[in-house]
UniProtKB/TrEMBL annotation:
Homodimer. Residues 2-105 form the FAD/NAD(P)-binding domain. The keyword Cytoplasm does not apply. Its cofactor is FAD. This is Pyridine nucleotide-disulfide oxidoreductase. It comes from Ureibacillus massiliensis 4400831 = CIP 108448 = CCUG 49529. InterPro entries: FAD/NAD-bd_sf, FAD/NAD-binding_dom, Ferredoxin-NADP_redctase_2. Keywords: Flavoprotein, Oxidoreductase.
Amino acid sequence: MYDVAIIGGGPAGGSAAIYTAKAGKKTIIIDSNQGVTKRAMLNNHYGVAEITGPDLVETGLNQAKKFGAELVETKVTNIRKLEQGFKLQTEDGEFEAKYVILATGFLMDLAEQVGIKTKPGTEPRVKTIFDVDLLGKTNIEGIWAAGTCAGVCVHTIITAGDGAKVAINIISEMNGERYVDHDVLK
């Protein structure tokens, strides 16, 4: 069983995976390769002169994999609550995880069948978002959401930050104390 399953490998999901994997949590990213970032040219991402969306996504996922995250390219079709955690049904098999982070961007198809509450989106072209609290929790204990699907601005710098925030909140809950990850120069 994975500690954390992240559905979506864009900036929010990839960023969340960097933090959870680096914190030693067994992490899987399940990505359906439908993210809008893969069609973007980014000239406004802090710390980077310019980068294509595909390069940003690839770099982020490689960072997550460096810390031990696994990446599976498939689509999640259902999430079912277990006694301990969740079973994620995909087009290619099943995975189990204690926690789930939804980082699905514009894709909300899991909400209705899983029972996650939604509300109207606030961003242009974002009709519906998951209804989350300030930490990123949905109405289903153990399922969290980050990025555009959780109502933050669609810009990659913001969705990546939200993914990190949600991951830190999950790690803190798992560890029973506030988690901080700061590396220092040697």
